[in-house]
Amino acid sequence: MFRPSRVVPGAVLIAMLAGCGTVDQGKTAPPAGNPSSSSSAGGAYINVVKLTGIAWFDRMNQGVKKFATTAKVTATQTGPSTNSPEQQVSLIQGLIAQKPAALAIVPSDPSSVIPVIKQARAAGIKVVTHEAPALTDVDADIEAFDNAKYGQKIMTDMAACMKSTGEYVQFVGTLTAATHMAWTEAAYELQQQKFPGMKRVSAPVESNNNGDQAYRKAKELLQAHPKIAGFQGASSEDIPGIARAVKEAGLQNDTCVFGTGVPSQTKSFVADGSIDAIYLWDPELAGEAMLSAAKLIVEGKQLADGTDLGVKGYEKLTVSPQNPKVFLGDAMLVLTRAEIGNYDF
């Protein structure tokens, strides 16, 4: 099995990686807007994720709960139960009427939430996003790291595993997922520049943040392109599905599988070689960081180079040179068989 060098963040943290129908409140506490139960910052804090019911956002909800306890405010997480930008937008519209102090949003499709973000801010609600580095009509966007560097790291390690030659394919949750596409495009550009012996066999493949879809599409690709030597996954649901197909075909020792993942979902596949390495930031800490940034903004403070959110990996924010509303942490993790057992989420 290939073992890439570990990226050492400023502090160990991290997303993965990776994900709506009807609104699912079963996995999270219902959003509340009762100012009497919150701090002097005023109002509730609500985190709206892409979809509920997957390991990534279950983990993020732990950070929301920790923020509520530490900051002594009302803070909850909600989201659609299927990966639908339309349902997420509808949910946010309903939350605006509750007049929370702040909304943190992990958009399924960043462009689709622009109108409701404008509505929220016009109503005096502070808005902080995550995985949406192109948005400008927000109070801030918090990213775990530089997205291009993340994609380049995955490609560099996959190329080493593939000995810089052979066919590969890239998966994304959706083509509208801004960070998934940023990682994928940066990786593809690096491959073309540095690893010309490698060949991408198709445009990025959408899994719709669904492991079963990733499994089915990986099986189809292995049948259509039996010489595929590498898979890269952007959604945290991608590489577990891909690994099932690789293992089923008995190709663990012949196929390099790299991408965003959650340790609990990928540990067994890493152990048997169906996945070579996972890349991520801890969703718990990302959720806590988003809401900590929102609280500072609610209190009238400004984020800047060097701002410390009091969360591991986000102790010294850097302003993105591409967008002054984007603030980067240093929270990347790379886990192979040697390290993955140290993480319990």
TrEMBL record:
InterPro entries in UniProt: Bact_Solute-Bind_Prot2 (IPR050555), Peripla_BP_I (IPR028082), SBP_2_dom (IPR025997)
A molecular function (GO) term: carbohydrate binding
Periplasmic binding protein domain mapped to chain residues: 48-302
Residues of the signal peptide: none
One GO term describing the cellular component: outer membrane-bounded periplasmic space
Major location category of this protein: other
Cell location: Cell envelope
Pfam families, alphabetized: Peripla_BP_4
Organism superkingdom: Bacteria
Entry similarity comment: Belongs to the bacterial solute-binding protein 2 family.
Protein's UniProt name: Autoinducer 2 ABC transporter substrate-binding protein
Top-level taxonomy: Bacteria, Bacillati, Actinomycetota, Actinomycetes, Propionibacteriales
